[in-house]
Structures are given as structure tokens and as C-alpha cells.
Amino acid sequence: MDQLTSSVRVDVKTAYIETQSSPEEDKYLFSYTITIHNLGNKAVTLKSRHWCITDADGRKSEVHGSGVVGETPTIQPKTSYEYTSGTVLETPLGVMEGSYTMTDEQGQEFKAIIAAFRLSIPGLLH
User: What angle do CA 115, 118, 124 make, to 5 degrees?
Assistant: First the structure.
């Protein structure tokens, strides 16, 4: 799944981490690898993130914070930044979506939208 906002494209890949999950305790761990592509001609800096996470029972949680994985990366033109993080759900299926607050070289702020993507244990959906 990818989403293009302004000159920034966000790609997402997910994985179920079976070895760290415990279905009998309603604990399902998923990783997600985000690649942020700066397709523009000016550097952009990721300032903060906002996630909305919804599990299969409709429980929603929101995450706000500065940067990602302890960094506020500046992404040069025609380059990408990648990181991996994770989340725990109480169900084997869920959805995440959100946005990054970015600034360009002139200090103009904009949102890079992260399209909804599915978190699902393998074989659950076809």
C-alpha cells in the first residue's frame, strides 16, 4: 500500500511476529516497515506522527509523538528513509492509518498521509 501526498510517497509492508505473539492471551504482534520517498526537489523533515489503530472488535487507539523510532529524519530530494516499528493488537486482524507532519526547507508544514493498511495473521484472509 502506498500513498502520495505533496512530493512524499509512503509505502508500507507488514509482518506478523508469531514468535512474540500469544493468541491464548489475545496478544498479536505485528511489525510494519515504512519507506518514505521524497519525490520532490527540496529536502523535507519528518517532525511528528499520528496513528489510528483499529482492531477487529472495533477498539481504536491513537498514537501521537515526535519523529519516528527516536529520529526526526531529513529526507533529501529523490531519496528515501526507511524504518521498522511494531504494534500489538488484541485480535488477529486490524487496520492502521495515519499521517506524518512534515516541513519543507522553507519551514512550510504539511501532512503526509499514510493510507489504511491491514495487519493480519497469515491465512486469516484470502
Answer: 165
